[in-house]
Amino acid sequence: MSAAKPAAPEPNEGRPWSPLAQRLRPRNLDELIGQKHLLGPGKLLRRLYELGQTASLILWGPPGVGKTSLARLLTDRAKAEFVEFSAVLSGIKDVREVVAQAQTRRRLGGRPTVLFVDEIHRFNKAQQDAFLPHVENGLITLIGATTENPSFEIIPALISRASVLTLEPLSRDELADLITLALTDRERGLGALEARLAPEALDFLVVSSGGDARALLNALELSAGLVRPDADGRRTVDLAAAEEAVQRKAWRYDKGAEEHYNLISALHKSLRDSDPDAALYWLARMLDGGEDPVYLLRRMIRFASEDVGLADPLSLLLGISALESYRLLGSPEGELALAHLAVHLALAPKSNSVYKAFGAAQQDVRRHGPLPVPLNIRNAPTKLMKDLGYGRGYQYAHDHPDALTDQPRLPDELRERRYYWPTRRGREKALAEHLDARREALRRRRERPEGRPGGWPPEERPAGWPPEERPEDRPAGRPEERED
Questions:
Q1: Are residues 195 and 213 in the same domain?
Q2: Which pLDDT score is estimated for 78?
């Protein structure tokens, strides 16, 4: 059967043997739980529903929050033809079939066509392009459902022709209301089972669902079925039954999708804000979701260079040690090294001075191109190079007081450029003081006559010039007859 044919109501919908989540699908907009920000009075979806109109929409949200139900309710209210299209199973041929059916329906004066594309983010660019002209001319009203960020997965031209609506996970109260509905509805729910939930079982099912109504109802139905009725025919679902039904919740986490980037961003920013508790939580979330610990270590090692820097040089070494520890121990024992590193990075003083300095240097390289190396610091391994002036005037730092020289080391165009501006945080405070002292010593040396190129001009020489050479000014250990 083609995936492009109109989708009639599912044959088991409302039947006693169909899944609870299917039986409890809302029959009108007032029965849909959640999404008050889209369904409240005067909101877009509420107005479309009340007017019996449709519009091209991209419904973006996590699983089990009502995307398919919303599409069906809007279509039914508008008395349109609901065509369900699978982005996984269908291709360009199926797109053409849907378009042909819609054209025939319009020509015969039939109902307008609403094309519902589940997992629309799985369409490739060619498939998405195929819909464009027909969405634009109104032949098809497109409603796409996606769990991934449309900005990354859907072509801009298609997004511009549809309204993107963000659906939220259901809240604890909304999930609790859904459980109450399921337990009390005798026609479509579990009311005939006379089932009730212990408070701790209710809390467990709500939390383990992760805001997914479908997952919650599936777990509720299974847990109720595991419990034997008592003498009065009632079933009490306790925590043990709920845990047995759920087993282990697979958290909504895809290492290649947006949630991956959301979580690594949360970890990175928690470290930067010096919050070890938040850092440990997000680290545990990613590990629990199946993230590669080596990837997390690489990111934290990068953080040690970018955000901690020279304020705490130990952080970079600790990152490398944590990586080696994990490689030695593996999971789960080696994961403690990640926690160790995360807490250290969160508590370490922060500086991005090296990160900014290197970025500024890279920017100058791109802006100015390959500027020539000053002659005085060029290597001169051959006579020709020496004759061309390579290395001429080079000052050997160890031949000068405090190993300080004032010779050109940057190209002329960048002679006074300064990239590294240390903070006064952590270990970098001492580096800043050292640099300040170095620059002050060079400034004073420039102000001394012997520090000026060529000394004082004869007409400016003060009385008593030249001064007597002081022992401390003579380079220690250097033969006086040696020339630079």
A1: yes
A2: 93
